[in-house]
Amino acid sequence: MSKRTKLTIGEFSQLLQVTVKTLRHYEQKGLLLPDEVDEWTGYRYYSIDQMQKLQAIRDLQRLGFSLDEIKDLFDDNSHIPSIQQLTEKIKETEAQLKALIARCNLLLDWRNARKEMKTMEKFSIQSLPEIIVATHREIVPNYAALGPLCVEKIGPEMQRLGCKCPPPGYCFTVVHNKEYTLTDIDIEYCEQVEEMGEDSAFIQFKRLPAVPKVLRMKHVGPYERFYESYIEAFRYIEEHGYKPIGQHRTCYIYGAWNQEDPEKWLSIIQIPIE
User: Are residues 149 and 255 in the same domain?
Assistant: First the structure.
């Protein structure tokens, strides 16, 4: 009768290319117990047969099965999932794949948008397509109140209404005051959505027509200094023979919600021109 080969945990670890820490974790989970433990030294020994069991564990993990699910399979004296279990894992994997593709597309859109913002000249002439927006108009005490209004009220209400916003997101404000003021600002917040929704007491939907030509200008800094950019923008408009028409928009890229330092806030001013 041939003597069974006994491998120390270190030898087993090297041969199977798995860490000792992982083997101890499998042991704690009751998934792969040592074939023998020396009662005096506490040394753990593994058998040749356990190599196949470890390989089965790895294969099932690659298929997306958790250690708990694998243990259940072994407890049922089966190393092979049933057709139903495989079907459920396929559905789960398809859902994960769909979510990952959506995340990847969103990341690509955001990266491209940030690249565009980073490389965009201070002034540029562009057109704006027709869009559908969810809007909320309110008199706020000052510009600082805009961030909390968006995060605490507008955002949750749009989510409740099931609004879907095309990435990377396009939101802007329109100020309706007839003259400049730092307080009691009559401001309308607009955010692009994929389709017209049903108006609520707080959010209304409308379709904005395309704008053939706008002057687009980067503004870096707090909102209280918008006037500095408007001075530059209207000087540019005059020097290049354009004429301002219609209502301007202010788009917010970086603000209090994602950048603590107001000096690094990035906004885009869009002024319709002809």
Answer: yes
Structure tokens at 39: 């009662």
Buried b (16+ CB within 10 A) or exposed e, 83-120: eeeeeebeeeeeeeeeeeeeeeeeeeeeeeeeeeeeee
Rg of the chain in Å (alpha carbons): 31
What is the model's pLDDT at position 181? 72
How many structural domains are present in the chain? 3
Residue 2 forms part of a structural domain: no
Query: Is residue 1 included in any domain, yes or no?
Result: no
Element (H, E) at 143: none
Tell me how far apart the alpha carbons of residues 84 and 90 are, in angstroms, rounded to a whole number: 10
Can you tell me which residue has the tokens 């040749």? 48
CB atoms within 10 A of CB 128: 17
Q: How far is the C-alpha of 187 from the C-alpha of 175, rounded, in Å?
A: 5
99-116 average pLDDT score: 72
Bridge partners, 134 (sequence order)? 191, 205
User: In the prediction, which pLDDT does 1 show?
Assistant: 41
Predicted confidence at residue 18, as pLDDT, reads 87
Output the six-digit token pair for 13: 């670890």
The pair of structure tokens assigned to 185 is 């600002």
Could you tell me which of 208, 207, 213, 218 has the C-alpha nearest to residue 244?
213
Give me the phi and psi of 68, to 5 degrees please.
Answer: -65, -40
Handedness of CA 112, 106, 61, 85 (dihedral sign): negative
Q: What is the pTM of this model?
A: 0.51
How many Å apart are CA 36 and CA 149, to the nearest integer? 65
